[in-house]
Amino acid sequence: MKSRSVVFGLTALAASLVLCQAGALAASAEKGKAAYLQHGCWQCHGYQGQGGIAGAKLAPNPIPFETLSNFVRTTNRAMPPYREEILSNDDLADVYAYLQSIPKDPDPNSIPLLNP
Amino acid sequence: MARRDKSPQGSAARGPAVSRRKFMAGVALTSAATAVSPQGAAQAATTTTPSPSPALRPSALRPDVHVAAAETGTPKELAKAIGPDGSDFMVDVIRTLNIDYVCSNPASSFRALHESLIDYGGNKKPEFITCTHEESSVAIGHGYFKVTGKPLMMLCHGTVGLQHAAMAIYNAWCDRVPVIAIGGTDIDAAHRAPGVPTFHSAQDINALVRDFTKWDDQPVSLQHFAQSMVRAYKIAMTPPHEPVMIALDLGLQQEPIKAHERESLYIPKYVPTAPPQADSNAVREAARLLVNAERPVIVADRAARTPAGVKLLVELAETLQAPVIDQGGRMNFPNSHYLKQNSRAQVLISNADVIIGLELSDYWATVNRFVDNGLDGIGVNETVIKPGTKLIGISSVGLVTKSNYQDFQRFQSLDVDMAGDAEASLPALIEAVKASIPSDRRAALEKRGEALKKAYAEARERTKAAAAVAWNASPISTARLAMEIYGQIKDLDYSLVSSSGNVSGWPNRLWKMDKHHNWLGASGGYGVGYGAPAAIGAALGNRDIGGRFSVSIQSDGDLMYAPGVLWTAARHKIPILSVMHNNRGYHQEVMHVQRLANRRNRVAALGMDRSPIGTSIENPDIDYASLAKSMGYWGAGPIKDPTELGPTLKRAVEVVKSGQPALVDVWTQPR
């Protein structure tokens, strides 16, 4: 019985992750940029998600959506959590789309100022 | 003639020669006998009244008409005296201390000393620096000391001026910086001018800043002033360095030197006090722990007071092959040295078996963590060290701890706790460490060093990669901002005189900082408004030393506290390049309000701005280049395109090299 519950739980989780991923893929980067600004993500992570002393790097190449989503909702105290009441799942998916749209950085070794 | 101290040590005072009291000779004071003398009148009264028998003697004699008039009537003007003024003697005293500048916004309560400084003293040693705000006056001295190791004097109005100055004095207190603050005050209520001067007088102006000054006094005679001034300087300049305060009565400044003082006044000799050193037994125990540690860590905050302190810290770290975490209160350790391991601070601290903290402003926060996201709205405290980790500390701060203001931070128990100046104690510690290392331990130390070299190189590459993220972004990333500046100054003997805004530490992470003046630390008390004036004070010091290029990364919120200091820099021809980190907000507070909104499940109200209402500096956007130009600066910007930044900075550097201050406004990412 216990193992069946575990299997069911994992199946449900997998299904929800697939849905979340699908939702993220269908999201709008343009709307996500607006939501990213509206909800203050930029304050710690920068306008391009580059991170800094106050927040982790989010882009380019963001972490998987489900990992990001779980963190945003709970955060384990690393940042103030954004609950669904103030950041909807759709908005979060749009934010993720925005992060995915941010172009890759130049190679640091190709930047003369970083190699004085 | 005013005499120097006749004590055995005092007959040959050090410091610059002082033009002695030429005005003293041959000048007679007119008698004060024309003034009403209550004492004299009372004496006359007693001599004309028959003495009652002891049994009938009243507790007080009835005043006769003269006494009553003297005690209750409107006081007459004090007799005018012709002769040398008290404030000229004060200038003589000040000049023995070799103080380069006096920073001040003028005020009536020190008008006599002001006049003596510029006319009797010739506006030299100290030279007047005209300020537009008392907070700037103090902070200029703050920055100047960090470059030169010499304190400046600041003059302020006793109440209103000192209240303006108070925040900057608190910054200096927290940052262990000496400032000689002098506040004019008119104590004599019967003779001071009514109205505004009386609004600006108080019984005890020093009370305003007593909680965060090391010593204060209110001299009541010229000899008292001479002692107090030299004592104040001596106390301020004994580590831990701290600001001191003297309340200076206007009457004392203005009144002529009294006849009986003319031959007895002297100027005490200033002899520096040797800094306090850690106890020798405790030093030996600390050395034993460090030598036997497997994973020792050195943490320094305000350890290197001078360039010599940097060398000593390098010697200690190399002897132990121990990583150094420089918390940045001063430039303690070269960032090109493989033992500087700031980027690995968290892992090093959490794995350490012995930690030595040198002049830490917050030992608790070095070995603990405060997480400001507790679900119940209360922050969470967590230790970050292993059980049994031995903690060693050398700090002079405990020698001057006061009660009210909480700059002493949380209490942290240490295993070996030494009260003493770290820099002064390092030679003994290094000697003890060298004497304690057994020969069979040296190989292990070398192996540790090799591992640290590898970790340093890897961390350097990670830092470069992090700096490249959003390299071409607009607003301009703080990494790009820092490296575009560095690209223009790296071949100069630069001094980053202030980094008032938070730019994620990029200069400390990526600029080569090997010299003590490459980095001067922060404000100490984190009072906004320090950056602009402290940078200009430091630039003044660098100008006088010569050959150095002063650059600051200037945040917008900080500059707007007292932007008039730009005029002071232009007026006094202080070359400095200020590059604005213009993120258009009080960004720390931006994040604080957002944090609380999230905690309460609310969407933060932005109004018409980008960030929560009340935290932005936009709508309208401030044109800092025009602001600077209006005060005599060369100005450019706002720069929003990163490709325009380098060429603009290049032009600005040339302007500064010519001796003029320049400001480049740059729209930046928040952090």
Tags for this entry?
heterodimer, A: 116 residues, mainly alpha, Cytochrome Bc1 Complex, Chain D, domain 2, 5 helices, B: 671 residues, alpha/beta, Rossmann fold, 4 domains, 6-stranded parallel beta sheet, 5-stranded parallel beta sheet, 23 helices, 38% helix, globular, disordered N terminus
What does this structure look like?
The complex is a heterodimer of chains A (116) and B (671). Chain A is mostly helical and 116 residues long. Chain A has helices at residues 2-25, 29-38, 41-45, 65-74, 89-101. Chain A has a single domain (2-105), classed as Orthogonal Bundle (Cytochrome Bc1 Complex, Chain D, domain 2), CATH 1.10.760. Chain A is globular. Chain B has 671 residues and is an alpha/beta fold. In chain B, the strands form five sheets. A six-stranded parallel sheet of chain B has the order 3-2-4-5-7-6, with helices on both faces. In chain B, helix 3 (86-95) packs across helix 4 and helix 11 packs parallel to helix 14. The N and C termini of chain B lie far apart (61 Å). Residues 1-54 and 77-82 of chain B have low confidence and may be disordered. The interface between A and B is large, with 40 and 49 residues.
Quickly name the level 1 CATH class of chain A: Mainly Alpha
Task: Quickly give the CATH architecture of chain A.
Answer: Orthogonal Bundle
Oligomer description: heterodimer
Query: What's the end-to-end separation of chain B, in Å?
Result: 61 Å
Mean pLDDT over the residues of chain A: 82
Shape of chain A: globular
Tally of domains of chain B: 4
CATH topology tier name of chain A:
Cytochrome Bc1 Complex, Chain D, domain 2
Uncertain regions spanning at least 5 consecutive residues of chain B: 1-54, 77-82
Q: Which spans of chain A of ≥5 residues are poorly predicted at pLDDT below 50?
A: 1-20
